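Q: C-alpha cells for this one, please.
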Amino acid sequence: MNQPGRNFMSLQFAARSENESFARVTVAAFVSQLDPTMDEITDLKTVISEAVTNSIIHGYDGDPEGIVTISALIEGDTVTLSVEDKGRGIEDVELAKQPLFTSKPELERSGMGFTIMENFMDEFEVSSELGGGTSIRMKKRIVSKTALYN
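A: Here is the predicted structure, written as C-alpha cells:
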C-alpha cells in the first residue's frame, strides 16, 4: 500500500457545544486517508469530543465567543492531534488528570476526559497557563485495515 507522507490541517470554531460533533467528523474525515479501523476512528472521535468539550465547558465556561483550535498532522502512519483554547487555563494539571476529578460537579461531569484521552492515544500531553488557555497534544499510530488483512 502506498503510505502517505506528511499532511496537515487546522480548524478554528466558536466554543459552542453544537460544534463538537462538527469537530469529531472533520478530524475523522481527515484521518480517513490512513485507512483506519472503525475502532481507531471511534477512539479519535472520542478524544476530540472530550478535548473540545473540556475547552467549551471548562476553558471558556460556556462562553460562545471563545475560539477552539484543532490541528492535525499526519506523518507516515501516525496522526498528531492538538486541541487548544485561550480560556481560563487549569490551576493544577496533575490533579485535573486524576480519574473522576471534575471542577464542575454541578454539571454532573464524569471527570474521565483526560483519562480517556490518555488511554485511547499512544502519547498524551496537557499544558496550561492560568488565564492563558490550555493545549492538549495527542499522538496515535494508525494500523490501516489494508495492513491488517494482508
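A few notes: The first helix runs from residue 20 to 31. The radius of gyration is 15 Å.
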